[in-house]
Amino acid sequence: MWPSVTGRDVLQALSHLGWQFVRQTGSHRNLRHPARCAARLPNATYPFAYSDRETVGAPALAKLTARMGLDRDAFLAALR
Fold first, then answer.
1. Which of 7, 8, 14, 78 is most deeply packed, by most CB within 10 A?
2. Do residues 34 and 18 make contact, with C-beta atoms less than 8 angstroms apart?
3. Could you count the other beta carbons within 10 Å of the beta carbon of residue 31?
4. Third-level CATH fold of 5-79
5. Helix axes 58-68, 72-79, angle to 10 degrees
6. pTM of the model
């Protein structure tokens, strides 16, 4: 099961997985993964549109990890 977490928790987990903050436009923060950029893989950059206090529910987390090409178990481990 996917937990329900805040945007801040998701950003911290993504940071642990190697994603880096690039820039912010309004409430949209753009993240990129250096290894994916170097290998020219798809989904090397990702617009993250959740505020720090906003709750990110289970369906949104599932979609986010799928679009970013992340392993579910690795992401859940980084959340802890």
1. 14
2. yes
3. 19
4. Metal Transport, Frataxin; Chain A (3.30.920)
5. 120
6. 0.86
Interval 29-54: pLDDT, tens: 999 888 877 667 666 788 999 999 99
Give the percent of the chain with pLDDT over 90: 65
From CA 29, how far away is CA 22, in angstroms rounded?
7
Give Cα 75 distance to the centre of its chain: 9
One DSSP character per residue, 11-76 reads HHHHHHTT-EEEEEETTEEEEE-HHHHHTT-TTSEEEE---TTSEE-HHHHHHHHHHHT--HHHHH
